[in-house]
């Protein structure tokens, strides 16, 4: 078993650190945020992720999982150092590499034994070379450091499951020995391994996320056409998805993709293509279609009120960018709520986990339950498909709103069932 240090305790770093400790490695996670480190030492996860708290507590108690703000302490015995810091979008669309560069310097200044550095963060093609150069230029001790690309494919809300049951682990290494060491690290997971060079591994990550984003934008545009032509996008997705060359996954039409990955990664890949004068218009089109998708939903609501929603009260069910997460980064709900407020509507919000949207607008009314949220409203908008909403007793709920108009932005509810209870329900890509 290996001594591992992980830099950064966001989704990727924390989940990977916890899972590596669960399969027997000794892991020290480093973060600059002291409050966060104290919290994790107590076995409390700073993010909402099903199953994470249990594994945190278990592995801390087995003395396999540690947290610190001190790089020297974390690197003292480590053979492998994982970089899992954020690569946010900068103004140009390119990934901002300041945290990656800092991590490389921290490694160079503090490692005291031969180390394999594993870059887990999503980084533009060529960044592993940059990390290697920064480390070599700043290295203090006389030790050997190899850099290996190992992008992450976990989904928020399913992060633990995805790490244990991934479709593949991509390892991009220039040194066979370093690549083998990373392969050994993950061997207990029994997940298929793809071995390649560093640039290809970096590209696998971006190309996979962009492909999934294209798939979502494609089905959303087909949905909009279905709506005009009287076809049912869910049946269409089932029908095309049964072709194993296409597959049914990521063909759920809705409000477009959000979150911390697809929006930023598609932008970063499009930026790389522009910079290298390569046509990647398919990804550019997916980005544009995604922006338009939530705008179309807002327009649909406004059209229901003959173009004027001023003074109307609207219930928003769900604000997280998808179910089972408290993440609202790039969530379609944010754009929809802003736009409804701008048009003069009053907005009531309920999400099972997210209790505050922060900056948006002090006039938003936060509710404690679905019934509270839909009481006396002119329309109800399902924006995040939390299971709790799907399982609601919609028959009992019909008495709460002023108008039983329900716009399902995620095609999560059954038109047939809800219509029987008296709901006037509208979905994406299906003529009601
Ligand atoms: C995504 C990828 O699925 C992961 O493989 C990847 O590791 C991760 O990004 C990352 O780069 O870190 P995540 O953003 O957590 O994971 O969430 P997804 O479950 O992929 O959903 C992304 C967005 O697409 C959500 O807004 C979701 O509502 C939307 N979506 C997904 C659809 O609109 N339709 C679908 O059929 C599927």
Description:
By secondary structure, this protein is an alpha/beta fold. It has three domains: about 5-195, Rossmann fold (3-Layer(aba) Sandwich); about 205-285, N-(1-d-carboxylethyl)-l-norvaline Dehydrogenase, domain 2 (Orthogonal Bundle); about 295-425, NAD(P)-binding Rossmann-like Domain (Rossmann fold, 3-Layer(aba) Sandwich). It has 17 helices and 14 strands. The chain has helices spanning about 10-20, 35-40, 50-60, 70-75, 100-110, 125-140, 160-165, 175-185, 200-230, 235-240, 260-275, 280-305, 330-340, 370-375, 385-390, 395, 415-420; strands at about 5, 25-30, 65-70, 80-85, 115-120, 145-150, 170-175, 195, 315, 345-350, 365, 380, 405-410, 425. It has an eight-stranded mixed sheet, with helices on both faces. The chain has a six-stranded parallel sheet with strand order 11-10-9-12-13-14. Strand 5, helix 6 and strand 6 form a beta-alpha-beta unit. Helix 11 (about 260-275) crosses helix 12. The longest helix has about 30 residues, at about 200-230. It is globular and about 70 Å long. The mean pLDDT is about 95. Uridine-5'-diphosphate-glucuronic acid binds near residues 152, 257, 265 and 321.
């Amino acid at each position: 078993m290996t001594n591992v240090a992980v830099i950064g305790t966001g989704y990727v770093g924390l989940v990977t650190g916890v899972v590596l400790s669960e399969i027997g490695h000794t892991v020290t996670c480093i973060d600059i945020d002291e409050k966060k480190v104290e919290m994790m030492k107590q076995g409390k996860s700073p993010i909402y992720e099903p199953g994470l708290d249990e594994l945190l507590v278990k592995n801390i108690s087995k003395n396999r999982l540690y947290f610190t703000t001190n790089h020297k302490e974390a690197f003292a015995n480590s053979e492998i150092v994982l970089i899992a810091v954020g690569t946010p979008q900068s103004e140009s669309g390119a990934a901002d590499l300041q945290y990656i560069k800092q991590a490389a310097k921290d490694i160079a200044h503090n490692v005291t034994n031969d180390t394999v550095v594993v870059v887990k963060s999503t980084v533009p093609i060529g960044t592993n070379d940059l990390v290697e150069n920064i480390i070599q230029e700043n290295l203090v001790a006389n030790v050997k450091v190899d850099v290996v690309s190992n992008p992450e494919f976990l989904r928020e809300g399913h992060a633990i499951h995805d790490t244990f049951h991934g479709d593949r682990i991509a390892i991009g290494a220039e040194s066979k020995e370093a690549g083998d060491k990373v392969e050994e690290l993950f061997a207990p997971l029994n997940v298929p391994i793809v071995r390649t060079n560093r640039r290809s591994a970096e590209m696998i990550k971006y190309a996979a996320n962009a492909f999934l984003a294209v798939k979502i934008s494609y089905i959303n545009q087909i949905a909009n056409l279905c709506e005009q032509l009287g076809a049912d996008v869910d049946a269409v997705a089932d029908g095309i998805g049964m072709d194993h060359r296409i597959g049914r996954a990521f063909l759920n039409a809705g409000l477009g993709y959000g979150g911390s990955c697809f929006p930023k990664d598609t932008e970063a890949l499009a930026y790389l293509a522009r910079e290298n004068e390569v046509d990647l218009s398919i990804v550019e089109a997916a980005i544009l279609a995604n922006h338009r998708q939530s705008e179309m939903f807002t327009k649909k609501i406004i059209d229901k009120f003959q173009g004027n929603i001023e003074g109307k009260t609207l219930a928003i069910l769900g604000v997280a960018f998808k179910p089972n997460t408290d993440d609202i980064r790039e969530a379609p709900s944010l754009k929809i709520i802003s736009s409804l407020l701008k048009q003069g509507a009053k907005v009531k919000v309920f999400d099972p986990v997210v209790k505050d949207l922060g900056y948006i607008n002090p006039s938003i009314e936060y509710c404690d339950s679905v019934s509270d949220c839909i009481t006396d409203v002119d329309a109800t908008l399902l924006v995040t498909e939390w299971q709790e909403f799907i399982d609601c007793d919609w028959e009992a709920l019909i008495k709460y709103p002023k108008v039983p108009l329900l716009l399902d932005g995620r095609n999560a509810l059954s038109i047939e069932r809800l219509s029987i209870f008296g709901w006037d329900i509208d979905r994406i890509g299906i003529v009601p």
